[in-house]
Amino acid sequence: MNEILSVVNLTKTFRFTEKQGRFFRVGGEKKKALDKLSFSVNEGEIFGLMGPNGAGKTTAMRIISTQIKSDSGDVFVDGINVREFPLKIRRKIGFLSLDLKLEEFFTPSYLFDFFSALREVPEKQARERKERLFHRFGVNEYANERFSVLSSGMKQKVSLVVSIAHDPQFIIFDEPTNGLDILAARAVSDFLLELKKQGKTIVLATHIFNLAEKICDRVGFIVNGRILNPDTLCETSGTSSLEDMFFSFYDRCDRSCKESNP
Questions:
Q1: Per-residue pLDDT tens for 6-39?
Q2: 1 Cβ contact list (under 8 Å, min separation 6)
Q3: Among 3.40.449.10, 3.30.70.1130, 1.10.287.370, 3.40.50.300, what is the CATH number of 3-260?
Q4: How far is C-alpha 72 from the chain's CA centre?
Q5: pLDDT, tens digit, for every residue of 40-93?
Q6: Predicted TM-score of the model (pTM)
Q7: What residue ranges do the domains of the chain occupy?
Q8: Do 173 and 133 touch, CB atoms closer than 8 A?
């Protein structure tokens, strides 16, 4: 398999004001979000980056998608260095994040057209893609409603549709089922499997074990900015559940940390 994403020794530290430190409950003025994070993703697979809230998943996704820069380390997408060529990367990827804030005054239809034009999608192709995706996720009924009046679940579906308006081959989803009810979450997970059948490569950040078991080919467990299982990224088709595997790695890591820091 061809390696399409390579993450090498990513380190990222955030600085906080005293007020922010109290709000986020971190001691001191700094928090290390990523600590020499490394993993790779093969072309055509769904890779899951799994961990609890605050583990570093979103920070890693934001660096890969060029939203923020790392302190050190490198990311390569299809051989292109993210730090050196961010515009090339943005043309290649689709990115859905909890941080994606769409203008609430506009309608889903306008937002899709805007982002399609921004990505230089031909008008006919954009119309056909909008019709297909809006129908697929039930957006048609709300296509001309202001984004502000939509339910949180519908907002999430519109955000997903907009993020892939340009039909990218490499897609990054940060908690894509967040805010969705069980029916909508099922529709999203089925859609991700459809994208894989189309040859897309997907990186999925999630803390939901059954979602990762259902759709991911491999997963990496991340805690405190580090991959717990760097030498043997887990195949999801194994006999143990992902939840059991995660806590096995976590307990082993926890014991190791205590032994090295008595």
A1: 999 999 998 766 665 555 555 556 778 999 999 9
A2: 42, 43, 44, 45
A3: 3.40.50.300
A4: 21
A5: 999 999 999 998 888 899 999 999 999 999 999 999 999 999 999 998 898 889
A6: 0.85
A7: 3-260
A8: no
